Amino acid sequence: MEQSTNDYIVVKAKDQGVQVIGLTRGQDTKFHHTEKLDRNEVLICQFTDHTSAIKIRGKAVVMTKYGTVETDQ
């Protein structure tokens, strides 16, 4: 069973076609999951034993326990 770190982020798309990409842990970082969001769609992403990083392409608002960040376009 996969353990989570309970850390998560919320991504809200400000434009069409925002990409949210999950990256693996380990020696070689690889893409393992991709989601495409339309304007105003929200995705909640959780970090797990398998997911070490999340990459966001496009104009979006990213909310974490550390604060809120808006991507530049």
What's the average pLDDT? Answer: 88
Corresponding CATH superfamily: TRAP-like
Q: Count of helices?
A: 0
CATH class: Mainly Beta
Q: What count of domains describes the coordinates?
A: 1
Bin the helical content: under 10%
Q: How many runs of DSSP E, i.e. beta strands?
A: 7
Q: If you compute it from the alpha carbons, what radius of gyration comes out, rounded to the nearest whole angstrom?
A: 12 Å
Concise overview:
This protein has about 70 residues and is mainly beta.
Describe this protein's structure.
This protein is an all-beta fold. The model has no long low-confidence stretch (mean pLDDT 88). It has no helices and 7 strands. The chain has one domain (4-66): Immunoglobulin-like, CATH 2.60.40.50. It is globular, with a radius of gyration of 12 Å.
Secondary-structure blueprint of this entry?
Elements: E1 4-13, E2 18-24, E3 31-37, E4 42-48, E5 51-57, E6 60-64, E7 67-70
Antiparallel strand pairs: 1-4, 1-6, 2-3, 2-5, 6-7
Organism: Paenibacillus chungangensis
Protein name: Transcription attenuation protein MtrB
Family: Belongs to the MtrB family.
